[in-house]
């Protein structure tokens, strides 16, 4: 936890991270908290304790292979909001025995509910963005996290710089798949009038164009289309979260190996 009392947005953001169970303690770098809370399970969905994974043997082996070179570095997942992005983040966290956070959920939890029924982001977009930066400051100072980052994480140079404290992965999912999810979610919600598929796709396309420059700053991109082609699938919908997670870990392995080689090359003989 950042030391000292903050006024307004900063205070609520700090509180959100504290309530999620990973406030920073002197000298722990986040790992001491994880050890202290081993075997416990947080209530709610803001942070997921390290858990026994149900992934494939290939996924488990890959996670084991990269753990040493990863050295507890946090992983930030960017990209358009989708069920795939969330599932991949949680699966990676499970396999690496990391904590999982959704940065937008932390901000919303810190702000609390409103009688209007609207989210904090809908009520006060500027306040949400400021609080999001505070949350990213908190999370980027810790280790052994998988952070599902909201779009605000790639919309400012300050936030992009905070993501450099870990490894950033862009999960790129076709917009038509996300549009179908959006329409389905709207149909199940009593709080909103469902958009048509065309309307949802148009909105998502505008959002994608606005943020793709920030997404592209990630250390590596995992494209669902590319994974589908690699696995010779006939349909994009055949790609599973496990398929994507294995590709993420494979790319992280390459990144950590390159970093290790560069560090060794820089050492004096």
Automatic annotation (TrEMBL):
SUPFAM superfamilies: P-loop containing nucleoside triphosphate hydrolases. It is found in: Plastid, Chloroplast. Residues 1-52 are annotated as: Disordered. InterPro entries: P-loop_NTPase, Shikimate/glucono_kinase, Shikimate_kinase/TSH1. GO terms for cellular component: chloroplast; cytosol. Residues 16-26 have a biased composition (Basic and acidic residues). Transmembrane segments: none annotated. PANTHER family: INACTIVE SHIKIMATE KINASE LIKE 1, CHLOROPLASTIC-RELATED (PTHR21087:SF4), SHIKIMATE KINASE (PTHR21087). Belongs to the shikimate kinase family. This is Shikimate kinase.
């Amino acid at each position: 936890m950042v030391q000292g009392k903050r006024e307004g947005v900063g205070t609520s953001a700090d509180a959100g991270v504290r309530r999620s169970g990973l406030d920073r303690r002197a000298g722990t770098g986040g790992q001491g908290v994880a050890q202290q809370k081993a075997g416990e399970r947080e209530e709610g969905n803001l942070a997921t304790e390290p858990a026994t994974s149900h992934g494939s043997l290939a996924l488990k082996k890959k996670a084991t292979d990269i753990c040493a070179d990863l050295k507890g570095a946090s992983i930030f997942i960017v990209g358009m909001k989708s069920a795939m992005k969330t599932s991949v983040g949680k699966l990676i966290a499970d396999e690496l025995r990391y904590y999982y956070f959704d940065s937008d959920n932390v901000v919303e939890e810190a702000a609390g509910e409103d009688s209007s029924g609207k989210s904090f982001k809908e009520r006060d977009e500027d306040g949400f963005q400021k609080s999001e930066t505070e949350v990213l400051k908190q999370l980027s100072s810790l280790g052994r996290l998988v952070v599902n980052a909201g779009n605000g994480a790639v919309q400012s140079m300050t936030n992009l710089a905070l993501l450099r404290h870990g490894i950033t992965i862009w999960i790129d999912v076709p917009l038509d798949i996300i549009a179908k999810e959006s329409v389905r979610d709207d149909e199940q919600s009593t709080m909103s009038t469902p958009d048509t598929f065309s309307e949802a796709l148009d909105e998502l396309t505008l959002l994608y164009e606005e943020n793709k420059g920030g997404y592209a700053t990630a250390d590596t991109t995992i494209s669902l289309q590319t994974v589908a082609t690699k696995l010779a699938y006939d349909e994009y919908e055949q790609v599973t979260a496990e398929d994507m997670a294995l590709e993420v870990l494979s790319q992280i392995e390459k990144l950590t190996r390159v970093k290790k080689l560069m560090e060794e090359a820089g050492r004096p003989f």
